[in-house]
Batch of 2 targets.
Target 1
Amino acid sequence: MEGNKKAFYFLLTPVLIWLVLLIIIPHIDLFVSSFKAENDAGTLVWSLENYIEFFRDSIYWRTFLNTAMYAIGVTLLAFVVTFPIAFYLTKVVSKKYASFLTLLLLIPLWIGELVTIYGWVIILGDHGVINESLKWLGIIDTPIKLLYTDLSMTIGLLYMSMLFMIIPVMTTLESLDDSLIEAASDLGASKWTIIRRIVIPHSMPGIINGAIIVFMLVIGDYVAPNILGGKSSLWFTEQIYNQFLSTFNWNEGAAFGFLLLMLSSAVIWLALKLSGQKLDKVGQ
Amino acid sequence: MRKMMLVGVSALTLTTGVLSAQDTLRIITWKGYTPKALVKKFEAETGIKLKITYSNNEEMIAKLRATRGGGFDLAQPSQDRISFVQKKFPIYLPMDYSKINTKQIIPSMLAAVKKNSGVDGKGYAVPFCYGTTGLIINKKAAPEAGDWSDLWNPKYAGKISYRLKRPLLIGAAFGMGKDPFALYGDKKAYAALIEEVTQKLIATKKMVKNYWTSADTQKANMTSGDVVVESGWDGIGWQLHKSNPDIDFVAPKSGALGWIDTYAIPAKSKNIEGAYKFINFMLKPENAAFFTNKEGYGTASNGAEKFLKAEIKDNFARSFTKADIDNIKWHPPVPAGFESIESKALERIKAAK
C-alpha cells in the first residue's frame, strides 16, 4: 500500500507540474490582467473597463451572439449527420468491419486541422475538384462559388468536429441492448417510433456529451472561419486575436478570452437545463 | 494556448542561444527577405549560422513584447511601427549608427527612418527595402481604373477585392479626397474620418468579390480573372505582369502608400556584433541588388542600381511617372492608440452583411 502511494505521487508529479506551469499559472496571469486597463495617462490600473467594453460596443456582443448561434447550428448538424453513422457502426454492420470503419473515421484527426482545412480549399475552390468535375461532366460552364462562403465554412467546422460527436454516441449506443429494439418491433412499433422512443432517449447522455464538445470546439475555432469563411465570417476568436495582435491590447484580449469561456459555459448550462440532463451523468 | 506556445518557443531559443550565442544569428523577418543564396554567402563569409523565422509586423511586435525583446538577435519591422511600440515596451536597442556602413545606404532614406523610428532623439532602425501599396489592375478588363476610389466603382462590381487591414482604410481615405496622415495629430478627427471610410466600405461591400488574405490569394484572384481591380503590393503586381502582360501594378492617382521595412535590434539580442555584420552585408550593393532582382521590391542600398536587371527598372518606369513618385504617401509613424480605432472599424466592415 505504502509503495503504491509513492508510485501514485511519482506519476502524479509530472502531470501536476504540467498543469500548474502551463495551464493554471498562465490562466491566473491572464485573469488578473483582464481586470487591468489603461487610464488616460497611459498607466495600467485596476478596472472593469475591459468587461464593460464588451457590452458597450455592439460589434463585440453581436459577434459573440452570431458565433454562438452558428456553433449551435453546427452542433445540431453534426448530430443529424453523425447519428445514422454511429447507429450503422454499432447496430447494423458486423463487429469485424465496425472497428476498421471506426479507424477510418479517425484518420482526419491524425492529419491536423490546418491541413484538412487546406484540403477543403483544394476541393471547393473555383478550379477545385468539385467544380472541375462538374465542368468535365458538362453540368456547368462557369464554376459555382463554393469556397469562401458560409457553406464552405460550415463544411470545415463540421468536418473537424464531427468525430467528437460520433464517438460518445457510439459508446452509449453500444450499451443499448438489441433485444429492446426487437421487443419494440415485435410489439408493432414503427422504425421511427423505435428511434424516437428507445434509441435516442437511451443515447441522450452520449449526444449531450458530444454536443458539448462540438459546441466548444466550434465556438473556439479560429482556423476554419478564417480560411474557409466568406466576406462576413467574423468569428469571436478573431476579435480576441485582433486584441492581442492588431491593437496590442492584451488586457482586453484576456477579458474577451474569459468572456468566451464564461458565456459558452452559460450556453452549455442552459442546454443541460432545457434537456433535463445532468453534467455528472453526461461525463460518464 | 498561444501564450503557452510562446513560452515554450522562447525557452527553447533561450537554451540554444546560450550554447552558441556568437556563432548564430536569430532573425525574425518577412518571407523573401533572406534569399537562400545570400544566406549561404553570409554564412561562408562570417562563419555565423543564421536561424530565420518568418513573421509580419503584428506578430513581430507581439513576440518581442512577450519576451521583452528576447528570443531574436535581429528583427525587420516596418519603419512606422517602431517608435510607438518602443515608447511603451522597450523591446529594441538604440541603433549604433557608427557600426553601420552608412555610405552604402541612400542618405535621405536613412535620415527619414532614423527620425521616424526615433524615441528621445535616438534612432532605432536602418532601412532595408521599400515598396508601395496601390492597385493591381487587369488593364484589358478595366482600362480606366487607376484610383483608390475604383475599389467602390459600380463599373467593376463583383470583380473587386482588397485586404481588410489598415492600409486599406488609409488608401480609401485618400480615395475619398481626404488626407488621413494629416490627422495623425488629432485622434478625434482621425476617428471621425475612419468612421466615414467605414460607412463607405460597408455601403459598397456587396461589390466586393472577396477579401484577400495572403500573397497567394491576391495572385489567384487576378490570374483566375475573377477580379479585375484589387488593392495590392507593387512587387506582387509586377510578378503577375511577368506571366500576364494585361495585369500590372498601378500607382493610384490619389497616391500610392509607401512603406519602408527596416532592421532593428531587439533589446535582449545575444549577438549584436553579428546583427551589425548582417545589416552591412545585406545592404552591400551587389547583395541588395540580388534581393531586389529576385523579389522586385526597391532597395535602400546606395549604388545597387547598376546591378539591377533591366526588367526591374522597367517595372518602376511603367508604374510610376515622375508625378506618381512625388505623390507617394510615406507612412508616418503610427501614433499610440490608433490601432484600436482601425481594428474596430475593420471588424465592423467584416461583420456587416
Target 2
Amino acid sequence: MRKLASLSVILALCGGAFYAVSAAEKAAEPAKEAAAAKTPLECFESRKGASELTQRDVQPGWPNVKCSPTTGAALWYGDPYDGTVPMGKMPGLDIAEGKAVVKPRTEKLALMPMCGVSCHNGVGPAFNPPKLPKDKKPAPVPTMEAMVPDLANFQHGRGRIWCMDCHHTTQRNMLVDHFGDPVSFDQPQLLCGKCHGDKLRDWRDGIHGKRIGEFVSTGKKRWFTCTECHNPHNVQDGARNKGFIQVQPEPSPQLPRGMANADHEKLHPIPH
Amino acid sequence: MLTSFLTDYTRYVLKGGKQFYTWMGVLSAFILAMLFVFYLQNTDGLIVTGMTSQISDGLYLANLVFLVGVAAGAVTIVFPAYVYHHEGMHKVAVLGEMLAITAVIMVMVFVFAHMGRPDRLWHMIPPRGIYSFSSMLGWDVMVLNGYLILNFVCGFYYLWCKYTGNPVNQKWFIPLVYVAIAWALSIHTVTAFLMANNPARPMWFHSMMPIRFIATAFAAGPALIILIFLIIRKNTKFWVDDSAIKLLTTIVQFCLGIAIFLTLSEVVIELYARTEHANGLYYLMFGLHGLTALVPWFWSSVVLMIGAFVMFFMPSFRNDFDKLRIPCAMAFAGIWIEKGMGLIVPGYIPSPIGEVTEYHPSFVEWLMVLGIWAFGFFILTILLKGAIGILLGEIKHGGPAAAVK
Amino acid sequence: MVAEFAVKPAASQFTPLLEEDVAINQKPCAGAAQDRPSDCPVQPASADPAANQLKTTRRDFLRAGGMLSLSSLMGTAALMTQSDNANAAVEWGEHFQKNYRLMTTEEKNEARLRLERRYSDEYGKKVSVDTTEAQPGMLMGYALNIRKCIGCRRCVHACVAENNQSRGPRPGEKIEWIQVLRMERGKFEQEKMNHGYPEGLGIQVGGNAYTPAGQVLEGQYHYNPKAVPEADATYMPIACMQCEKPPCVKVCPVRTTYREGDGPVVIDYNWCIGCKMCMNACPYWARRFNLTTPVLPKEEMNPVTHYLGNRPRMRGVVEKCHWCLQRTRHNRYPACVEVCPVGARKFGNLLDPESEVSKILERKNVFRLKAELNTFPKFFYFYD
C-alpha cells in the first residue's frame, strides 16, 4: 500500500514534468515561427500574371491586402477598390455612376504600349508591303508569331476562330466586337459575350465571375472582368479540368493531436 | 442534536486502522494529481488532453455517462427493498443511496473536467444566469441535481432516524423513495437523450439509446454494488444478507443479457445495410480507413460482457461469493468500455463531414480520470463507513462515541 | 415568393451614411466603421421597440436577483490565476457581464469599451469592437458554385486573416472554419469487373462497385498537390451553414449561441461555458473549440472586429463562421467571397430580388447539404 502511495505521487510529479516540457516548447516555437513567416508584400489576384497588388497600410494595422506566404496569392482585401477605374457602360447593366469599378487591364499587357503606335497605328504598317488581312480568313502573321512563339498552338475555339476574331485588325491596342468596332482591353466582356452569351448573362447578374466590395445590390463593387480570371490564349491546360488555370493550393489544415499523417484519407475501403 | 450527529459521524469515520489510512492516503495522492490536472486544464486549456475539435469529448464524457448509469443502478437495491419489501435489500438500501450520492458527485466533477470554462458554470443558474429548457444538458443538470438531493435526503434522513432511534416517518419518506426510484430512470434517460438527440451523430441517433443505457446501467451499477457488499462483508462487522447479493446477481445477469442483446441488434441492423451512418460502428468494430485504435477496446468489451454473462449462468460462480467477484468485475469493466470508448468516442469518428481522426487520451487525461475515480472512492468510503457505523449501532445518539466525550 | 416578401432594399436606409463617410475620408473602403473604428457612427438601436422594452424589464428582474455567492467564488478563482493586475478590473467586469442578448444598449456599450480597451492594450493597436445590430430588410444568404471550386483553399486562409483565429504550431492551436473536401472522380475499369460487392463473402453481385465517384463524404481534407484543380478530383468547401433551424442553438444550455435576425448564427464568447454540446449537435462540423488561449500574433491581428464576430476569443470557448458580421453588417462582402479566385462564392440579401443569391435561387439548380436533417441552411450549393 505504501508502494502504491509513492507510485501515485510519482505519477503526479510526472504530470508536472510534462507540463514544464510542454510550456518550454511553447516558448520556443513562436520565435521559430517569426523567423519563418516572411509575408510577401506583392501578391497576384485571381491568376498569376493577370493583376497584382502591393501591400500598404490604408491605416495603421489595416493593409489594403494581405498576401499568402505560401503561394503569393492575395488572401484578404482591406481595400477592395485599390487601383480601380470606372467600369464604363455595359449593355443590360444599369448601375449608378461610380458604383461599378474595374481594374484596368491595359497597363498589364506587355506589348500594349507598342501595339497602338509602332506597327498598327490605325492606318496600317508603314513598312513594305502594306498588308493587312483583306477578309476574316486566317493567315500567317510572321511578326506576331515571332513575338508570341506558341501563337500557332492556341486552343481557344479549337481552330474555328483566329486572332482577328478578337483583336481589332487595325487598332491593335483594341479588341473587336461583332460590328468590327473597337472594344477596350478593360472591357473584355463586350467581346467575350459574343460567343459566351450565357456566361455574360450570369456575369451581369453576379452569378458568374467575381465582384468584391459592397454586397448589397446598390453597393459599390469592383467587378472582375473576364480576362482577370481567364487567359483567353490558354483555355486548355493539361491536367486541369476547369476553365481556370492550375494554381498552387494554400497549406492543408493542421493535423489534429495524435494523427501522424493523413494517408488514411487516400484509402477508400470497400463497405461490406 | 444535529451537531452531535455530525461530530459523532466525523469522529467515527476518522477512526481507522493502518489499512484505512493507507487506502485513503493513496486516494488522496490521486486526488491531488487530479487537482493539478484541473489546474492545468484551466490555465493551459483542454489542449493538455487528447480532445480535439474533431473529437470534442472523450474519456470525461464517457465516464460521466457511465457514472450516471452507476448512480441510476442504485435503484436496483432501493426498488426491491421498498416496492417488494425484500428483507435483505431493505437492510442495505441506504448503502445503495450512498453509492448513488457518490456517483452523482463524480458525474458533477466530470462535468467540470470536460468543460472549457468551468468558471462560467454559473451562467446556467438563474436568475443571473440563463436556464435553457430546450437544452438536454440543462435537463441533465436539473435531474442530476434533483437525484443528488433526493438521495441525500432519503439516505441521511434514514440514517438520522437510526441514529436518534426515532421511527422513520413513513408518510413522506416512502413517497419520496418512490419519487427517487422514478427519478433514477430519468437521470439515465435524459443522459441518453443528451447523446441520442443529435442527428449529426448517426452512431448515437437511435431510439434504442435510452433502454440500452438503462440496461447497461442496471448491470454495471449492481455489479459494482455486489463487489462493494462483498468487501463490506469481509472487512466490517456488517453482514449483507446472501439473499440481497443473490437478487442483485440475478438483476445483473438479466440486464447484462438485455444489454448484450441490444448491442447485437444494433450490430445486425447497422451492418446488414452498412450505410454511411454505420461508419462509426464499423470504425469501432473493425476500423475505418486503416485506423483501428478502438478495435481492441470493443472486442475486449464483448469478451468481458459475454464471458461474465456465461459465468453468471454457472452455479459455481453464482453461488460461490468468492468467485462471484470475477464475473461482476468483468461485467463492470465490459460496460465501462462499452459506454466509454465504445459509445462516446466512435460518435465522433468519422466527423459529421466524414473526416476520420483518432482519439488518443493524454497522460494527464488518464490522471484526471483516475483522480476523479479516487475522489469517488474517497467519498464512498466515508459515506459507507458512516452508514455502516450507524446501521451497526456504533454511532448512536448518546452511544459509545458520545460516552468517550 | 422572394420578390413578394422583399422589403425596399435595406441598403437605401443606411448606405447614404456610409457613402458620405467614404467621401469625407477619401477612403475606398466599403464599411465606414471599418475605416474609422473608434469613432464610427452611432450604433443603430434595435429595430423592434418591443425588444427594448423586454430587455429593460428583464434587467430590472436580474438586478433584483442579485449575484450568486457561487458565481463570485468562481470568479475569484478565475482571477487568482491571472497574474496581470492591470487587466484584473477589466477581466472582472467581463467575467460578470450578462448574456449579450439581455444587455441594454448602455451595457452593450460598456462591454464594447471594456473589450476595446483590453484588445488595444493586448495587441498594441487601436482595436474597434462593433456592436451594429441586424438591419431591417436584410436576410443574408450564401451560395457556392461547386462546379467552379478548384480547391485552392484561399477562402480558408482569408477567413483566418479576417477572423482572428488561433494560428499556433501545436496541434489544436490552429483553427480554420472552412474545410475543403477533395472528392475523387473515381473510375470504372474493365479489370475490376471481378471485384465488387460483397467481396470476401463468397458471393458476388456486381463488379466495379467501389469507386468513390459521387461519394460525398468519402474524401480528403488534407490533400496537398502541387497544383489544383486536379483532373481526377472535385472539391467541396464546407463551413457553417447558418441554419434557420440550427441544432446547435437548440442544445446550448446557456443560450449563448443564437440566430441573429439577419441570418447568421452567432456566439457570445463571453457567455459560452465550453460544454461543447453544440459541437456534438452540428451536422456540418462547423464549430471549433479553443483548446488553449488562441495564438494570435499582434501584427496579424485584424483590429476591425464585431462583438458577435471576429473579436479575439479566449481559451475554452467555441467559435464558428458568422459570415464576417463585422463586414456584412456594413454591407461588405465576407472575406472568403472576396478572395475566391474563381468567383465560386456568392453572397447577398435573400430579401432583395436583385441580389446575386436571389438570382441564383431563381435561375440555377441549388441544393442544401444534408437537407434531410431539416436544418434549412441558408448556404446553398449550386452548379451552372
